[in-house]
UniProtKB/TrEMBL annotation:
Record GO biological process: proteolysis
Protein name: Peptidase M23B
A single GO cellular-component term on record: cell envelope
The keyword Metal-binding belongs to this UniProt entry's keyword annotation: yes
Broad class of the protein's primary localization: other
Length: 533
C-alpha cells in the first residue's frame, strides 16, 4: 500500500519561501540505477508504489544549491527504496539535537496533484512522496505565510509590506546562529553583527531577549533581511537597519523616563531583605537601604521579629508604564526594638550627598562595622576552637561567610599599608585610617585593581573579593579592627559620628526634611506619586 497520512506540499521547494513544513531533499545527478523510494512515518506502511496515481500537472522544480527546513523528530519518516547503486543517507534537519542527514536521488520530472507528489523518468512511474507532519508553529511557517500573502514585487526600505518576525533568545543562542536559522546569508549576518557593535555588544544578548527581525519579499530568491530591533533593558532600544548601499547601521535610543516617588512599609518576620521584597521594593533600593544603615545597624544581630521599616524613594518608568529602575532614596526609617531611626537624603553646599538623622547629624562613621554586603556572620571575636588547628585559640576578628568573589569594601578612608600574601591570612590587605585605627581583611580571592601599598582609598571603595586563601575552611572574609596596633572587637567599638550640619546648611536641611515628611505622610503605602519632587 502507498504511504498514508496527511501529505506535505512540496511544490514550493526551491522557491523564495521554501517548504513551510517538512524536510528538504537534496538531489544530485543520477549515479546509475534508478531508485524506487517512498517516505512514511511508519516503515510498516511502506509497500509498492501506487501505480494508479494520476498526476494533474507536470513540472521540473527549480532546485537551489542548498535547501533546508526543520522536521519535528516524530515526523522524521522512515524510508524504503530499491536500487543497490544509490545508497540512502537520510533526511536533512536543522535541529542540533539530531544528526544532520541528506538524501541522494536522481534529478527527475515531478508531477503533483493536490498535496501529493510523484517522480517519473519519462512515462515510467517512479515514486510517490508523502510525509506525515503535524502542524508546525515554527517561525519559518509564519514567515512563509506572511510573505505569501503580500503583493508580488520588491519592497523598498521601510516599505509597509515588510514582514516582522519576533524571536525569543534561548540559553546558548548566538546572534549569528539566530540569523543563520532565518536563512540570512553568512556575509550579511557578519556585516550586520559588526554594524551592531557600534551601539551594543552582541555578546551581551541574553536568554529572554526578544529580537524583531524584518524581511521583505522578492520576486526571486529568499526574502531580503532588512534589519532587527530589540530592548536589551527596559527603556533602551537597539535598532539595526539596512542602508541604501546594502550595508547596515545601528542606533541606540533611550526612552524618556517618567519620575515617580513611591512609599513602601514593611514588617520584619525573618530578614529585612525578605520583608522588603514582600513589600514590593526593588532589590537595588533594598541594597541602598542596607548600605545607609550599615554604619549603625548590625543586620546579623540587631534585627528582631516585629521590627518595622519604611522607604520613600524615586522610581523611573517608561511612558507606557514599565519600571526601568529605582532612583535615590529620599527618606528611610527603621524601628528597631521600639527605637525609631529616620534618615534623610541631603546635598550640602559643596555638592556632597549623604544621609542625616533628624538633627542633621551625618550617618558616616570613621569605620564600617561590616565591610561586605549580604554576608552571614559566621564567627565572632574571642576565644574559640580553631576549625583547622583543632584547639582553642583567640579569634582576633570576625568572619563573614559569603560566596567567592563577593566584593569587600574599605571600612573607611585611608591608605593601603599592605596588600599581598601574608602568612596564614592568605591574600591580605591592611589599611591605615588614623594614627590610632587600622583595619585588616584576610583570605581574599584577589585584590581590586590598583590596590597596592601606598594607595589612598575611600570608604566603601572595593578593595578585594571574598576567597578562601591561607588557613581557611571555606570562602569567607576575616575582618579585624586594630586600635593602636591591637585587635579589638569590631562589633563593640563605638565610632564618632560623621559630619554635622551647621548654620545655613542645617536650616536648608530642616526645610527639606519638613517637605519630605509632609510628602511621605500624605502618600499611602504602596502608592507612587507621578512627577513628585
Amino acid at each position: 500500500m502507498p504511504p498514508t497520512g496527511r501529505p506535505v506540499r512540496f511544490t514550493l521547494v526551491g522557491s523564495a519561501i521554501g517548504a513551510a513544513l517538512g524536510a528538504t531533499l537534496y538531489f544530485n545527478p543520477p549515479v546509475s540505477a534508478t531508485p524506487l523510494f517512498a517516505l512514511s512515518p511508519k516503515p510498516a506502511e511502506i509497500g509498492s508504489a501506487a501505480s494508479a496515481f494520476s498526476p494533474a500537472f507536470a513540472a521540473t522544480p527549480p532546485f537551489a544549491p542548498s535547501l533546508a527546513d526543520r522536521v519535528p523528530e516524530p515526523a522524521l519518516p522512515a524510508l524504503a527504496m530499491t536500487g543497490a547503486n544509490h545508497p540512502f543517507r537520510g533526511l536533512s534537519s536543522h535541529d542540533s539535537s539530531y544528526p544532520r542527514r541528506s538524501l541522494d536521488a536522481t534529478a527527475l520530472d515531478w508531477q503533483g496533484s493536490g498535496d501529493s507528489l510523484t517522480a517519473t523518468v519519462g512515462a515510467e512511474f517512479l515514486a510517490e512522496l508523502d510525509i506525515m507532519v503535524p502542524p508546525a508553529p515554527g517561525l519559518d511557517e509564519d514567515l512563509a505565510a506572511a510573505l505569501a500573502a503580500l503583493p508580488a514585487g520588491k519592497a523598498g526600505a521601510g516599505d509597509s509590506s515588510a514582514v516582522d518576525l519576533t524571536i525569543t533568545v534561548s540559553r546558548g543562542d548566538t546572534l549569528m546562529e539566530l540569523l543563520s536559522e532565518q536563512d540570512v546569508p553568512l556575509t550579511e549576518a557578519h556585516d550586520a553583527i559588526e554594524a551592531l557593535r557600534a551601539s551594543f555588544d552582541p555578546r551581551e544578548i541574553r536568554p529572554g531577549h526578544e529580537l524583531t527581525l524584518s524581511f521583505e519579499p522578492r520576486d526571486e530568491g529568499a526574502p531580503l533581511f532588512r534589519g532587527l530591533s530589540f530592548e536589551p533593558t527596559i527603556g533602551t532600544t537597539i535598532t539595526l537597519t539596512r542602508t541604501a548601499e546594502n550595508g547596515f547601521a545601528s542606533t541606540k535610543q533611550e526612552a524618556k523616563l517618567v519620575r515617580k516617588v513611591a512609599r513602601y512599609d514593611g514588617e520584619i518576620s525573618s530578614s529585612l531583605f525578605e520583608a522588603g521584597i514582600k513589600a514590593g521594593i526593588e532589590q537595588t533600593a533594598l541594597s541602598e537601604l542596607i548600605r545607609i544603615y550599615s554604619y549603625d545597624v548590625d543586620f546579623q544581630r540587631d534585627l528582631q521579629k516585629g521590627d518595622r521599616f519604611s522607604m520613600f524613594y524615586e522610581q523611573y518608568y517608561t511612558d507606557d508604564g514599565r519600571l526601568v529602575r529605582a532612583g535615590n532614596v529620599l527618606f528611610a526609617s527603621m524601628t528597631l526594638s521600639g527605637t525609631v531611626m529616620p534618615l534623610y537624603r541631603f546635598e550640602d553646599t559643596e555638592g556632597f550627598v549623604d544621609y542625616y538623622n533628624g538633627k542633621g547629624e551625618g550617618i558616616r562613621k570613621a569605620l564600617l562595622r561590616t565591610p561586605i554586603n549580604g554576608a552571614r556572620l559566621s564567627s565572632g571575636f574571642g576565644l574559640r576552637r580553631h576549625p583547622v588547628l583543632g584547639f582553642s585559640k583567640m579569634h582576633k576578628g570576625v568572619d563573614f561567610a559569603a560566596p567567592p568573589g563577593t566584593p569587600i569594601y574599605a571600612a573607611g578612608d585611608g591608605v593601603v599599608e599592605k596588600a599581598g600574601p601574608f602568612s596564614s591570612y592568605g591574600n591580605y590587605v591592611r589599611l591605615r585610617h588614623t594614627e590610632d585605627y587600622k583595619t585588616a581583611y584576610a583570605h581574599m580571592k584577589g585584590f581590586a585593581a590598583g590596590i597596592t601599598a601606598g594607595k589612598k582609598v575611600r570608604q566603601g571603595q572595593v578593595i578585594g573579593y571574598v576567597g578562601t586563601t591561607g588557613r581557611s575552611t571555606g570562602p569567607h572574609l576575616h575582618y579585624e579592627i586594630l586600635r593602636q596596633n591591637a585587635q579589638v572587637n569590631p562589633m563593640g567599638v563605638r565610632f564618632p559620628s560623621g559630619k554635622s550640619l551647621r548654620g545655613k546648611e542645617l536650616a536648608a536641611f530642616q526645610k527639606e526634611r519638613a517637605r519630605v515628611d509632609m510628602a511621605f505622610q500624605a502618600t499611602p503605602s504602596g502608592t507612587k506619586l507621578a512627577s513628585a519632587n
